[in-house]
Design goal:
218 residues; alpha/beta; 7-stranded mixed β-sheet; 26% strand; binds S-adenosylmethionine; transmembrane helix; SAM-dependent_MTases_sf; S-adenosyl-L-methionine; Methyltransf_16
Length: 218
């Protein structure tokens, strides 16, 4: 009888998370991301959802040139770095504890002339939102940020605050639990939501959300 004591894909995933750095190629550059799972946990490793959304932005030719982008729950910063390399002005945010590693990765991977286009800033969902321009962004990006039920209302409030009727929200995620689906239902209550991509090999979905058209405004 064949014994399969572990799921080899899951094990490979865990090994990736425990590496002290990982390398990617986007926008014709090698990006070297420092990781620190042991000290900082989920915020300090690159999740597949981030890599899939970076690939989507680049391969689909999403036009970020000169656009104002904010990334929520940026973790190590890969997605924000790639958005900057693709031409955007990016506010790259996460909770306070994640910021030193995030800042180090952004500095190490952006050439000096692009550094002014990437600003790392604390944003804990639902808190101090007045520090961020209401409706002031063309794109809101988030990779693997749908996973903590207790943050769902705060995350929605944050999206509401940052979004105008022109803003495009792109969220990439693996839907691991029923609660993740529940968040999508909550999102659908406020925004028009459409799945725009599914990467079967990584089991990562990308959803696009925009403010619902208010028929009274037409
Ligand atoms: C699974 S990690 C994803 C990190 C990164 N986006 C990626 O895909 O590699 C989730 C991220 O959400 C952040 N996060 C969790 N709760 C948060 C909150 N209440 N406010 C802001 N960020 C939060 C974590 O610090 C972490 O960086």
């Amino acid at each position: 009888m064949a014994l399969v004591p572990y799921d080899s894909i899951a094990l490979w995933g865990m090994q990736k998370l425990h590496k002290s750095s990982s390398a990617y190629t986007f926008a014709n550059r090698t990006i070297q991301i420092k990781q620190n799972w042991n000290q900082l946990g989920v915020a300090a490793v690159v999740w597949d959802a981030a890599v899939v959304l970076c690939t989507f932005l680049e391969m689909r030719g999403i036009d970020l040139q000169g656009s104002l982008v904010i990334e929520l729950g940026a973790g190590t910063g890969l997605l924000g770095i790639v958005a900057t390399l693709l031409g955007a002005h990016v506010t790259i945010t996460d909770r306070k504890a994640a910021l030193p590693l995030l800042e180090a990765n952004v500095q190490a991977n952006l050439p000096a002339e692009l550094q002014p286009r990437a600003v790392v800033k604390e944003l804990t969902w639902g808190q101090d939102l007045a520090n961020f321009s209401p409706g002031g962004y063309d794109f809101i990006l988030g990779a693997d940020i749908i996973y903590l039920e207790e943050t769902f209302m705060d995350l929605l409030q944050t999206l509401d605050h940052l979004c105008s009727d022109q803003t495009v929200i792109l969220l990439s995620c693996r839907l691991r639990y029923e609660r993740d689906q529940n968040f999508l239902e909550m999102l659908r209550g406020r925004f028009s939501v459409r799945e725009v991509f599914y990467d079967a090999s990584n089991d990562v979905h990308i959803f696009k959300a925009q403010q619902k058209v208010q028929y009274g405004d037409l």
